[in-house]
Amino acid sequence: MKKYLAELVGTFILVLFGCGTAVVAGEKVGYLGIAFAFGLALIGAAYGIGPISGCHINPAVSLGVWVARRMSLQDLIGYWVGQFAGGVLAAWILTVIVTGVGGGYDVAAKGLGQNGWGAGYLGGYSMNSAIAFEFVATLIFVIVILGSTQKSAPAGFAGLAIGLTLVVIHIFGIHVTGVSVNPARSFGPALLVGGKALAQVWLFLLVPSLGGAVAGLLFRTKALEAE
After folding, report:
1. Among 10, 11, 12, 86, which one is most buried in terms of CB atoms within 10 A?
2. Mean pLDDT, rounded, for 152-168
């Protein structure tokens, strides 16, 4: 249970500070600031809860780890419960914070940093663009995670490498989908915003999971596993 609680806490940190920066300070810090908010939140969580759970804080990462045969099915399910609970809790706390601003805040209209695509969403990219970006970005992200945490990798640097990779992914992809690469990060805000955000969340549950699974398969088959 300690591992599952750690995953809840870590996912909470990522979603609260990543999405919170986008919502509260996005106009001030821009896309680069939002990208670093997500990456630095991940680095902080990695060193805070990594010794307990490995700091997956992402259902797609946990799926990749399971496919690579580095965790049990029981732990996979427990991690997923903790991660989705952390994402929803963070979105709820963010709602409490932003609705307290003077003049009010319309969550349904202004959102909580949810992911999406199509007309009216950021760059207006198509669903095909969203699928391609989320699959490739998650594949690369989980490859970095599995590669930097294998036994032969330098000790102590995984959190930094993973966090900086997430920064680069956001710099590239915020204008496309807002960047998910993490079903729990997408589900929490979409659940509380509802409407179009909730209608589109299926893509951010499915596609990153497929990317994570393929990355796990590359390590399971020893295609990318160090000898």
Report:
1. 11
2. 91
